[in-house]
Design brief:
mainly alpha; globular; about 45% helix; about 5% strand; 4 strands; two-stranded parallel ribbon; two-stranded antiparallel sheet
């Protein structure tokens, strides 16, 4: 009887020990599989494809070529300023002379050569490995706006363009920003009701005419959501007019 009791206790103890060690074994297995994956598909810079230490990042040389927008900046347009303007709000001459229709806007970086390559690869070449990185950049650039936002609304694609591209890059970015910030995302509040020409190469006035009447807000947005909505687009010009949901009466 005693050997049997010892045996049963020993078996129980070994099961508990094995259970306690299971997460450690899974961690070791995940590390081994990750190392094997890196050997077969080594991590490379998402811009120049140079070998780097981790997936979904940019190398030091490419990072240095990204012109990030940082303070001091215009609190309305989000464009960089050469210096602080004084005790009041930092406003650019353009924002004072011709105030935009929206409350505030922010962008992560200028549309320079390296940033343009990243955006075009993401939009047109199905290169989505940089999505988590882009999400972090957006959160850092727009943390003030996100703190006051009730909802993130991505700019929609017309159905024919969505069909040909197979995804909406603004919706992907909005989902990532929502995941990181905790702000709800609704991809169906704003609807694109007609096709438009590409905005590439158009002036601010041409871009405004091009999208005039192309969007419609779902009627439920006026009744169900608060007044503060954050419109998210892959690229943006300070004189474009992001859509703002009407406040509840």
């Amino acid at each position: 009887m005693v050997p049997m009791a010892i045996s049963e206790t020993g078996s129980l103890t070994s099961v508990r020990a094995g259970t306690a060690q299971a997460p450690k074994r899974r961690g070791l297995l995940a590390t081994a599989l990750g190392s094997l994956a890196d050997l077969l598909l080594p991590p490379v810079c998402i811009v120049c494809r140079t070998r780097i230490g981790n997936h979904g990042l940019v190398c030091g040389a490419c990072f240095a070529e990204i012109d990030f927008i940082a303070a001091p900046l215009c609190e309305r347009l989000g464009v960089p300023l050469p210096y602080e303007t004084g005790d009041g709000p930092n406003l650019s001459a353009s924002a004072i002379a011709n105030p935009p229709a929206y409350d505030r806007a922010r962008a992560a970086a200028r549309y320079s050569a390296t940033m343009r390559d990243l955006i075009q690869s993401f939009k047109y070449r199905d290169r989505h490995e940089g999505l988590p990185l882009f999400g972090r950049w957006l959160i850092k650039a727009g943390h003030e706006l996100l703190a006051d936002a009730d909802l993130i609304v991505p700019v929609p694609l017309y159905r024919s363009r969505l069909w040909s591209r197979r995804f909406n890059q603004s919706a992907l970015l909005a989902q990532e920003a929502g995941r990181l910030s905790g702000v709800p995302v609704d991809c169906f509040v704003l609807k694109r009701v007609r096709a438009t020409a590409s905005q590439v190469g158009l002036t601010a006035k041409q871009r405004k005419r091009n999208v005039a009447g192309a969007f419609k807000i779902d009627p439920r947005a006026k009744n169900e959501f608060g007044a503060s909505a954050l419109s998210l687009s892959m690229t943006w010009s300070p004189r474009e007019r992001p859509w703002k949901l009407a406040p509840r009466p």
